Each structure stands twice: as C-alpha cells, then as structure tokens.
Amino acid sequence: MTTDTFSHSAFFQQLKKYYTFYTGGFLLFLFALAIAEQMGMSRAWIGYWFLFATIALYAGIGWMSRTMDVAEYYVAGRRVPAFFNGMATGADWMSAASFIGMAGTLFLSGFDGLAWVMGWTGGFCLVALFLAPYLRKFGQFTIPDFLAERYGGNIVRSIGVIAAITCSFVYVVAQIYGVGLIVSRMTGLEFGVGVFVGLGGILVCAMLGGMRAVTWTQVAQYIVLIIAYLTPVVWLGIKHTGIPIPQIAYGYTLQKLGEVEKKITNDPKEQEVRKIFADRAAAGKAALATPDQSYTDGKARVAQNLTDLKAANAPADQVAAAEKAVAAYPANVDAAKVQWKKETALAARAAPPKPHGEAFPGKDDAARDTARLNFIGIVFCMMFGTAALPHILMRYYTTPSVQQARVSVFWSLFFIFLLYFTAPCLAVLAKYDMFTNLVGSSFATLPAWAAAWAKVDPSLLNITDINHDGIVQWAEVVIGGDLIVLATPEIAGLPYVVSGLVAAGGLAAALSTADGLLLTIANALAHDLYYKMIDPTATTARRVTISKVLLVCAAITAAYVTSLKPGDILFLVGAAFSLGASSFFPALVMGVFWKRANKWGAICGMVVGLGLCAYYMYTRYPFFGVNMPLWFGLSPVSAGMFGLPASMLTIFIVSLLTPEPSRQVQELVEHVRYPNLVGDTMNTQAA
Amino acid sequence: MELTAKHEEYWHRNLKITSILLLVWFIVTFVEIWFARDLNSSMTFLGFPLAFYMSAQGSLIIYVVLIGVYALLMRKLDLEYNVDEGDLE
Questions:
Q1: Could you give the CA distance from residue A475 to residue A659 in angstroms, rounded to a whole number?
Q2: Among the listed ranges A91-95, A142-146, A258-262, A572-576, which one has the minimum average pLDDT value?
Q3: What distance in Å separates residue A130's CA from the closest CA in chain B?
Q4: Collapsing DSSP states into helix, strand and coil, what is residue A461?
Q5: Is-contact A589 A653, C-beta < 8 A?
Q6: Residue A2 predicted with pLDDT over 50
Q7: Quick one: how many helices (H) and strands (E) in chain B?
Q8: What is the pLDDT of residue A687?
Q9: In this model, does residue A402 exceed pLDDT 70?
C-alpha cells in the first residue's frame, strides 16, 4: 500500500480542512437562525429549516461520494484515517436511544441507569483487545466473510448472515421509529410522513455511495449531534454549578439533590398526595378481588349519590358532577376491571423519590442483590453486544492499516465518551432544577417550559393538582424520560433555536445509526448470500447494483414494520445486543485466539447461543405471554448472560470432539495475528 | 509458513498485554459494581459518592485510556518484533 500514489497524510489534511469549514458553516447557520428568530421567524419555520438543511446536507455528501466501485462501496476504499473513522463510528454507534433516551433513563432510575452508560462504553475495550486489529488484518468486507473463511463452508456463513440480519433489523426498527418521532415533533408533520422524509435522506446517502458516503455523512452527523448535546448542558451547568464544564462539578449538585430528596420524602403535603395514590391503589385492588360485587355496588353508589344530591337541592355544579359520574361509570364489568387495574398501578406513584445516587435500592438484601445482578446483566450484555454488532465491527475494515484500526477504536470511544459522560450530568442538573423550580411553584404560575410541554404532550409531562392545594408537589408530576433532553434548552432558558438544534442532533443520531445498519443488512444479503453463495461469477457492477436494490428493500421493510409500532424500544435495542453477544462474540474471538476451534464447534456454538438467548427472551418477556419464572431473577433483556457462556462452552467442547482444522485454516489464524508477517504469502485482503 | 520462535514470543507478549488490560477492565467494571454499595458509603470524590463517580465517569475515562495504552504498546511491540506494516505515510 505504500507504493500507491495516494498520500494518507495529504488526505487527512484535506479532510481536516473540509470538516473545519463545515463546522464553521454549521455554526454560522445556527447564528443566522438565532438572528432570524429574534426578528420574528416562527417556531415551525425554524424546525423546517433544521430538518431540510441538515437532510439536504447529508444527501449532498452522499451524492458527492457516489460510487460503483466494490471496495469503495463496501469499505470506503480502506483509507479512512483513524480519527475520522472514530467520529464516524461514534455517530454510527450513538442512536436515538443514546441521544434522547439515555439522560431520561438516568433521570428516572438514578444510579441503576448507569448500567447502560458503562455497558455502552466499556464494550469498546473488548473491540480493541479482541477484534478490531485482527478483523482489519483479515480485511474482507463483512463479518460473515470472516466466519466463513475461518471455519469454512456455507453453513457458517449462513448462520452469520441470519444473525447479522436479525440483530441489525431489530435495531434499525428502533432507529426509524426515532426518526419518525423527531421529525414529527420538529415540524408537526404526521409520524408516517416523518418516517418517509427521514428515510429519503438515509437512502439517497447510503444508496449512492455505500460505506464511502455513509462514512463521510456520519462524520458530519457526529459534529451536529455533539454540538447539539453539549450546548444546552453547558448552559444549564453555568446556571447551577457556575462553571461551563458541569461534568466535573455536578457532584456537589448531586449532594444538594440528596437533601432536596429528603425534604420531599418528609414533606407533609407530599405525603398527603402519596397517601391519596396509595388509597386509590388499595381501593382498585380490593375492587378487583370481587369484581362483580364491586361493580354493582359502585354503580348503585354513584346513582344513590345523584338522587341524594337532587333530593337535598344541592348546588347545580355538584349535581352536574354527580351526573357526569353516573354517565362515566364503566358500561360493564370488563371495562371496570381495566379502570381498576389502572388505579392499582397508581401504587407506583405512592412511593417517595428514590435517592438518585444510591446503588441498587431495595427493601431488603435479597431485593438489593437482584438489583445488582440485573445491573451486571445489562452491563455484561451491552458490552459483549457492542463487541459483536456487525455494523460497528464493519467500520474497522475501513482503516488503512492494523495500527490505524487500533488507534481508531481509541478515537471511537473518545468521541462516544464525550456524550456518555455528559448524560448522567444532564440528568442530575435537570432533576435538581425541577425539584427546586417546579416543585413548590403554584399551578397558576408554572415555569414557562412546564406549562408549554404539559400542553403539547401529556405523555411526556403531566401535572395534576391531586390534593387541590394549588401548589405543585413532586408526587403530582409524571415525566416521560424523553422530555429531559428535548426540554433542557427551555429549562435552561435558551432561545427556541437551540431546541431546534437538539432535535436536529437527535435526528442525526438516529439517521447515522440507521444508515450503518441498513448497509449491514443489504451487504449481508448482496455480498454474502448472493455473491458468495449464489452467483460467485457476478460482475462487480452487478454486485454493487444488487446491494443498492436490496438496501431500498431493507429500508422499506423496516419502515413498514416500524409503522406497526412494535413494543418497547429499549427492549428492542437490548434484545439486539443480547442476540449479537450470544451469536457472534464467542465464534469471532475464539476464531482468532484459539487455533483449535473448528467448523462444527462454531456452528453448534452459534446455534446454541442464539437459540438459548431467543428462548429465554421468548419465554420470559411479558409481550409474548409465556411468562415462565426468571432464572436468578435476571430480566429477559440480559438473556446474553446465559447465551454467551453457553455458546463459548459449546464451541470448546464440540471443537475438541471433532478433528482439528486444516493446516490452511491454522495459517489463516497466524496470518491475522501478525500485522505484517515476513515471508507470509497469504493475502486475504479483498480489493 | 513456519512461525519462528520470535514470532511465538510476539504473540505471547501480545497475550500478556491483552490479559493485563482485560484484568483492569474487569476490575473497574465488575468488581466496582459488585462493591458499589460499600464504595458509595465509604467515600466521596469531587462531591460524588465513589461508585456513582466511577460508573458515571471514572471507569469511562479508564476505558478510553486503556484503549490508548493498548494501541501505543502494540505499536511498540510491532516495531520491536519487526511485524509492523511500515509507515503508511
């Protein structure tokens, strides 16, 4: 590679120049919109500008990077410098769930939410130590490529393709859902329209230039999303900690938060509201115990109440309220049951706030141990899943050398770290702000942001005066996690243009991840299934064309599944990681580190891992309705904690029971272990 | 091709670096989590309870540094054993 005329350092300088100009241009664009807002541009128009300007930009980069060359299309010509590959991986990695959901989860669950933060960063250690350099040396196009070459045969490749498509598809559905949500929030367009506008942006980019276009767009998207995430937090940090790097100083805010939590726990008005919820929950539970009896009694009671009031000549408004109660009484027992179940669920709101910094809170030691085990389960599965998701591993095929691949993991985690160490800080600052400014304010003069959000979207913020004292108690506030990131600019008192910026950042996060995932799916089908297994004589032009067509098909299928709005997004994401960890990680790592691992070991191991993981999820996740008892109380998201060791053990045992791999395969292992082996004639690198 | 003794040695030193770094990773992740309650109640750092700090920031910083150290050590090892890829400009 040193002999070609292409100069890596000149290329790096050129990229640096481009992206510096680009960042400057983006800041100028922000500044112009801020001025326009002061001059009276409407909020809807600011939203449209952000949406169309950023999507046009991403599509523009896609158009400029269009290509029909195989190596360019699959691995961006293998000349992406470590630094920029790090940025692209960062954007590829950080999804809508990281950008919007993470801070919300931390806000709602305190310390326990940190499992996601640790899991989604620490996994890169495994990528660096076990995978990136070796995959780069191997230097093909996809992850099933490696499995097929190392273990031999189409069975392994097929399992690889199935596993790659399964986890990528589950994950991409969650992203497209995020795209639709953000676009509709930014502009007021319908959810469905939002999905298709966003999808259009993804397709122009990924279809025209494959990995090459996606890489350079992802770098641009990273810059947008990190500016969008940090701006409001810095502002809020200055407000509460007095310094512009609140990540360092929010420990003291956390202490103050602890004091406010105690105050809220002991406040008589708060206790009054919590008691109301506890009573309502108890009443609901009692009614559910004897549904038929309760239904008749309740119906008689509201009717009786109305008659009494009428007989006593009560004021008109009281009579009207009683009439309304009669009209609103459930039509039959089943409808009443639904209502009672809702009331029973209010028990959750009868609890005082959980101390934010406390690790594994629980009522006794057993509960605390289960909480700890589940924390470990999430960390474990997210980490090993990170080191197994094909769309991330694929990125390390694109660097110019093995050493650059190693350095590139460093930059990847560095850029991801910038967002992940900010999220817990944002959660604490936002919580402290709400505890001090929202709680205790009167319903007549709510903070402006709270009044606005409660009106726009009750699922994100709902404040009801339960005890009718006209003052907001914390127990009266219901918050949806996504509110935290979306409303921070307003909580910090920033102009609307920053809210637009945050939405644009969320969009960039969702689009960049969706890009990478769709490309992985399409490549697994076009390269592994079509080219390697069906028609190895296909011309390069034909291979690239087929990839592009399949990309569109994958995108449309994913959009269709998204429109059905399947289940819980966080579960989908977690499931993708657990599946990846159980299927890919053991086979990939043992393939490099244990020469004795052979074809049958890998086949059985992957099947066992994937199967056990899927079985545990299917039989334990409430959505499927089987609901068997949990093993050790471990939630189904962490199924990989069983799948991965089982898979490893299977590979080990089956490999030892069957003949060792051929001399040629062992040489391949040696080949990938050394960045450059003098006298080694093997060349696995696909051009 | 046959690997020389020197090549074997390179791989063993690679394994050693990998295991030591993996041990660090394991300690700041799983050992830290296991004792989180004790760490939280024992001391504070920059105002944070210690385990909260580690999970939210400290371990993350160590992960980044760990990968950086790995890249540097491996670069050195490659050069020492003459298995580096030459300068790609």
A1: 65
A2: A572-576
A3: 8
A4: strand
A5: no
A6: no
A7: 5, 2
A8: 60
A9: yes
Q: How far is A564 from chain B (nearest CA, A)?
A: 36
Burial of A364 (0-12, 13-18, 19+ CB in 10 A): exposed
- Quick one: average pLDDT of A23-42? 91
Please report the pLDDT score of residue A3 as a whole number. 42
Specify whether the CB–CB gap between A141 and A397 falls below 8 A: yes
When pLDDT is averaged across residues A211-233 and rounded to a whole number, the result is 92
DSSP state string for A160-226:
HHHHHHHHHHHHHHHHHHHHHHHHHHHH---HHHHHHHHHHHHHHHHHHHHHHHHHHHHHHHHHHHH
- Chains A & B: contacts with CB separation below 8 Å: 162
For residues A461 and A447, give the distance between their C-alpha atoms in angstroms, rounded to a whole number.
13
Of A352-361, A452-461, A521-530, A613-622, the range with the lowest mean pLDDT is A452-461
- Compute the C-alpha angle A513/A519/A520, nearest 5°: 90
Number of other CB atoms surrounding residue A298 within 10 Å: 15
CB contact under 8 A, B67 and A404: no
Give the tokens for residue B80.
């020492």
Distance of alpha carbon A272 from the chain centroid: 37
Mutate to test the interface with B, among A2, A111, A396 (most CBs of B within 10 A): A111
Q: What tokens appear for A393 in the block? A: 């591993």
Residue window 4-33, chain B: list those with CB within 8 Å of chain A. Answer: 7, 10-11, 14, 18, 21-22, 25, 29-30, 33
pLDDT grade, residue A386 (50/70/90)?
A: very high
Q: Given this model, what pLDDT does residue A568 score?
A: 67
**Residues comprising chain B, all counted:** 89
Domain ranges for chain B: 27-83
Rounded to an integer, the average pLDDT of A448-456 is 82
Q: What is the pLDDT of residues A505-532, one digit of tens each?
A: 998 898 899 989 999 999 899 888 888 8
Residue A469: per-residue pLDDT:
87
Radius of gyration (Cα) for chain A, nearest Å?
28
The whole-angstrom distance between A39's CA and the closest CA on chain B is 41
**Mean of the pLDDT values across residues A1-29?**
82
Chain A residues in contact with B21 by the CB 8 A cut-off are 125, 129
DSSP characters over A483-541? HHHHHHHHHTT--HHHHHHHHHHHHHHHHHHHHHHHHHHHHIIIIIIIIIII-TT--HH
- Tokens 């350095």 belong to which residue? A407
Closest residue in A to B30 (Cα–Cα): A376
Look at strands A477-479 and A461-463 and give their pairing: antiparallel
Q: Which amino acid is at A589?
A: V
